[in-house]
User: Fold Adenosine kinase from Rhizobium helianthi.
Amino acid sequence: MSKFDVLTIGNAIVDILARCEDNFLTENGIIKSAMNLIDAERAERLYSLMGPAHEASGGSAGNTAAGVASFGARAAYFGKVAEDELGKIFRHDIRAQGVHFETKPQGKFPPTARSMIFVTPDSERSMNTYLGACVDLGPEDIEPDVVAEAKVTYFEGYLWDPPRAKEAIRECARIAHENGREVSMTLSDSFCVDRYRDEFLDLMRSGTVDIVFANKQEALALYETDDFELALSSIAKDCKLAAVTMSEEGAIILRGQERVKVDAIAIERLVDTTGAGDLFASGFLFGYTAGRSLEDCGKLGCLAAGIVIQQLGPRPMLSLKDAGIEAGLI
Assistant:
C-alpha cells in the first residue's frame, strides 16, 4: 500500500494575476501566452505597472498537487520557498489543500518566487516569472521515503531552468524506479521545449520518464514539425504513455498503438486559462493512480481543466471530487 498517489515537484511560485490589454504586452516587451523568465529588477518594474491584482499560490506542479488533493487523492509536493511573507502564503495555501509539503524553507534571500500573470481579453495568460528561491531546490530537499511511497512522481519541465533541480529530479527518478513506481513530466511550454529539447527527448527515450504531458504546441515544438500527426506518432514511440491536450478540442491519450480521443467539457464562460494544463494532469493522474481506463483518465483531466478555466486563478475553488461525482466519473 502506497502512502501517496502523486508526488509533484516544481517551482514554488506565488501568482499575481491582473487583467490588461494586448498593447500593454507589446509596450512592455512581454511575449504573449509564454512563460517569460525575468530578474528581480524587472519583477519590481512589472509589479508597479499592474492594475488591481489577485494573489494565489501557484507554480505548475503545485497546482497539479492541489488538483489531485481536490479529487480526494493523496498528494505530496517538493518545492523551495523563502522565509518571507510570500513563502508563508505558499506554505499555508498548499497545506490547506491537504497536500503534504515539508520542504525546508531557506532564509529571506533570494525571496520566494513570484509570477506576474497578465490576462488579456481573450483569456490568454502571459507569465513573467522571477524564480527567486526556486533556483536553490536541490538533492538535499528530497524526501526519499515520500518518493518511494508515491505511485507516480511528477515534475515540471520548468525545473530544467534552475541547474541543481536537475540533480534532484534524476535522484527522484532513480528512487521511484527502484521502488517499482513511475515518473511523469509535463513539457511546460514550447519555449521551455526549445531550450531543452535534446534533454527532454533523452529523458523519454532512456526510460527516466514514463508518462509525458504536453499540449499541441509543445508536442509540435518537441519534434520541430508542423505536422501534428507526426508529432503524435513520434511521442507515442518515445515514451510509455503520453497525454496531449488540444484546448477546446479535448485531448489525445497515446500508449503504444493505443490511441484514445477525449472531448473537452462544455463551459459557460472562459475566464482565465492559467492552470488548465496543470489541472488536466491532476485529473488524469488521479484516474491513473486509481487504476481507471485511459478514457476515464482523459475525461477526468478535461473535467478539471474545464472547471479551472472558468475562474480566475490556477487552483480549483470548488471540490473536484464533488464535480467528478456529479459528472458520473467518480
The chain has one domain: 4-11+60-101+133-326.
